[in-house]
């Protein structure tokens, strides 16, 4: 009954009044500052630096950073709330938070105290933006295939390589770069020998080659960057040499919760639009909400949203508790929420009919946005594989077969 957990309590999602007060504050900010500009942000596809500064002043970028490093000391559930509420209005803006999270998490978990004090307060206050550079033209979900090289020359590291589809990299001040520092021992251990480095975007040899004109999540750019003989000091190495793959996986495990919440926010927005429209639009002399087909569609949409939300916040709660089970639940949440969101948004377009494909309704934008969530931060087929392998690994560690507890 409780497999793959050990107790029914593990299935609970605990949200407090503090979480609700935070949600209300975020919602008020989003409705006042972001929602009125959502269409403009999508059409112009430019980083809204003024809005990013305001979000920094609200402490949104430092939500999960401890207070001692200038952050809010919030939890993963608050981060999910933030991602959901912002994505409900402008999904592209929520990407900036995830980019910051991917940068900050490895430094918090594995960096030196000097690195934490140097970089995190600036990120937390929104004074500096950050990016995470793992993906390359050759390798997306295959993180172990990274070809960017870093070699030690004297007391410094020299980095050469090319990164692709790096969110926020055109405006980021700091970029966390994954590079190979030694050859893998054999074909079965390609993940060995990767390391992480903090690189400043304006450092000599760092160049933003191009930013892609992409389907959705506009207002945040995914760019290709080249690193040519980029020199960084020894203290730019994050954690231990050769452990970069593991650090990246740990960062992705956490960021997937944010992607799931991003999808939930999009689905919620689509449902609200469809529900409102169905009760205003008339056909054959009656409101279309009186048609059973529309009623069924709206209820099915809501069931998917509630399921996705509960799975997402369950992953966040487990992460807050430091439970290793959060890893496979986060993969499940990322996979399910993004698939469900695409279905909900498609159904919302059907409720609107022809008006659903008009830009001004916002559904057309959500339809474009949601597809990217199924691909980035690990494509959904990869999430299925990851969830299965993580589940098997967890059960092997316990030594307990299903139903044996």
Automatic annotation (TrEMBL):
<feature type="domain" description="Acyl-CoA oxidase/dehydrogenase middle">
    <location>
        <begin position="131"/>
        <end position="230"/>
    </location>
</feature>
<keyword id="KW-0274">FAD</keyword>
<dbReference type="InterPro" id="IPR046373">
    <property type="entry name" value="Acyl-CoA_Oxase/DH_mid-dom_sf"/>
</dbReference>
<dbReference type="InterPro" id="IPR037069">
    <property type="entry name" value="AcylCoA_DH/ox_N_sf"/>
</dbReference>
<keyword id="KW-0285">Flavoprotein</keyword>
<dbReference type="InterPro" id="IPR009100">
    <property type="entry name" value="AcylCoA_DH/oxidase_NM_dom_sf"/>
</dbReference>
<dbReference type="InterPro" id="IPR036250">
    <property type="entry name" value="AcylCo_DH-like_C"/>
</dbReference>
<dbReference type="Pfam" id="PF02770">
    <property type="entry name" value="Acyl-CoA_dh_M"/>
</dbReference>
<comment type="similarity">
    <text>Belongs to the acyl-CoA dehydrogenase family.</text>
</comment>
<keyword id="KW-0560">Oxidoreductase</keyword>
<protein>
    <submittedName>
        <fullName>Acyl-CoA dehydrogenase domain protein</fullName>
    </submittedName>
</protein>
<dbReference type="GO" id="GO:0050660">
    <property type="term" value="F:flavin adenine dinucleotide binding"/>
</dbReference>
<dbReference type="InterPro" id="IPR009075">
    <property type="entry name" value="AcylCo_DH/oxidase_C"/>
</dbReference>
<dbReference type="Pfam" id="PF00441">
    <property type="entry name" value="Acyl-CoA_dh_1"/>
</dbReference>
<dbReference type="InterPro" id="IPR013786">
    <property type="entry name" value="AcylCoA_DH/ox_N"/>
</dbReference>
<feature type="domain" description="Acyl-CoA dehydrogenase/oxidase C-terminal">
    <location>
        <begin position="242"/>
        <end position="390"/>
    </location>
</feature>
<dbReference type="GO" id="GO:0003995">
    <property type="term" value="F:acyl-CoA dehydrogenase activity"/>
</dbReference>
<dbReference type="InterPro" id="IPR006089">
    <property type="entry name" value="Acyl-CoA_DH_CS"/>
</dbReference>
<dbReference type="Pfam" id="PF02771">
    <property type="entry name" value="Acyl-CoA_dh_N"/>
</dbReference>
<dbReference type="InterPro" id="IPR006091">
    <property type="entry name" value="Acyl-CoA_Oxase/DH_mid-dom"/>
</dbReference>
<feature type="domain" description="Acyl-CoA dehydrogenase/oxidase N-terminal">
    <location>
        <begin position="16"/>
        <end position="127"/>
    </location>
</feature>
